[in-house]
Amino acid sequence: MGNRTLALIAALTAACGGGSGDGGGDDDGEVDAAAGDGTAGSLVLPPPNGAVDYQLGGAYPPPVGVTIVSRDRRASPAAGLYNICYVNGFQIQPDEESFWMTQHPELILRDGQGNPVIDADWNEMLIDIGTPAKRTAVAAIVGGWIDGCADAGFAAIEIDNLDSFSRSGGLLTEADAVAAMRLFADRAHARGLPASQKNSAELVGRKAEMGTDFVVAEECNRYDECGVYTAAYGDHVIVIEYRQADFDAGCAAFPGLSIVLRDRDLVTPGAAGYVFAGC
């Protein structure tokens, strides 16, 4: 574990008033809603150390024993399980470019030449959350998707690409991302759904500002970040690893977490390259 990570864990532990077992929620997985934060009643979090499957590449019958599944917002929940609804709230998936280009071109982040700013790894345009007015407009759109998740029967919300500011060429800031995430979390809470922090270990110290309730973390064992998340969220951390060695290390070091090994393309069973294991 590096010195930077140790220092960050220490600071988060002090700020949260507890160790890795203190996630700020009840032992039964419920988080009491704080007054004035847009929540109502108690939010039921994913069960700690529940067997999880990550199905963003396509929905399929979950493997035997799985109790938590994350699926795209356009998929249906898996019957009888705790279902997390994946929403790409900070970037634009290629098959949704036409919607944004024709109906909301002013909400696409653009460089000095007026060209859309692209996340080259996933070929996704970034959404412009750089002003309060634009964040409100984006939250109205994404909020409609969150409502759709609630109406479909999902139990929680996973908003992806919280860290898009780091790929914006300086056009967006960390504060922009935090403020946008708060709007998304408030909308989820208004529908009785907890909202996850997705990746972005550097933002854990701003958990209260974001209003997030649990974590979905990709490769936190690979990048030595799982302890950063547990320092603030306790065992309410869902981990997806894409390399066997990182999965094995996580299962040994964090036996109280929900950890799954998947193939990076998240293909469905029967497709070449499909990988699934849990601990």
Short description:
This protein is α/β, with parallel strands linked by helices and 279 residues long. It has seven helices and 14 strands.
Instruction: State the separation between the terminal residues, measured CA to CA.
Output: 22 Å
CATH topology: TIM Barrel
The average pLDDT is 89
According to CATH, what is the class?
Alpha Beta
Q: What is the CATH homology-level superfamily?
A: Aldolase class I
Structure description:
- The chain has 279 residues and is of the alpha/beta class.
- The protein has one domain: Alpha-Beta Barrel (TIM Barrel), CATH 3.20.20.70.
- Helices cover 29% and strands 20% of the residues.
- The chain is built from seven helices and 14 strands.
- The strands form three sheets. The chain has a nine-stranded mixed sheet. It has a three-stranded antiparallel sheet with strand order 6-8-7, with no helix packed on it. A two-stranded antiparallel sheet has the order 1-2.
- β10, α5 and β11 form a beta-alpha-beta unit.
- It is globular.
